[in-house]
Design brief:
about 270 residues; alpha+beta; Cytochrome Bc1 Complex, Chain D, domain 2; three-stranded mixed beta sheet; two-stranded antiparallel sheet; 10 helices; 9 strands; about 35% helix; about 10% strand
Length: about 270
Amino acid sequence: MLFTALTLAPVFGAPMGAAYQEGIINNGQAVEFARVIPSEQLRSGFTFISDDLRSLQSNDDLNPAFLWVIQGETLWKRALSKDNPSCENCHGESNKSMRGVSTKYPQIDPKSGDLINLEARINLCRARYQHTSALNLESDEMLGITAYVASASRGLPMNVRIDAQNREHFLKGRSLYYTRMGQINLACTHCHEENWSGKLQGETISQGHINDYPVYRLEWQKLGSLHRRIRACLSGVRAYMFPLGSKELLDLELFLGWRSSDSKIVVESPGVRR
């Protein structure tokens, strides 16, 4: 058993009780929700890792994730042909044009009406404007360009907002976050809201904020996306692993982005974790 102190609900797959049904405040089209962890207690995952990992993440020359960032910069500047522009041809220097962009994803794509994350936006740009094929999720190319774009927002607070357009996706993601899953019958909240700062297999449990993705994990020996990390959690509780890029993971990513949106939770991409 992962946590001896946890009391498991008798109903498999049941959502959490009324204590986690946050109030809704309507303000025109905007919708605001109350957090379980109050703002004054919010802490970045950086504060829960060891000193050696902090040193790696804080030094771009030592951070192994920058092998992918360098690759991403090359892709950003590369024109596929004389008729197909590079990212830089449209957007210019990433550190200027992309500053703040990653803080707002996932968001609704105006043309399709679909909820998309940063990876999906990159692939939409490739299809619509570069007239080329999509990058495979978790490929080194996708991880590299995502890390390169996200790194342009380092130091800025997460800024995911909920409105009339994305509200239903948010509610689905929130429901998933508070639903017990798998043979171990745990919800995300059990680790990241009820037991943060506790220990799990020698590691300190964070509050589950997503301001450092994509992230280099020593256990992976490579960079990985948020969706890969969520799937690892699902595997850990012996639950169904939603496919990369699935609607379920996008909805959950939206909720996680919202709960990470605070002045104290700034973008640290790319992070380093055990």
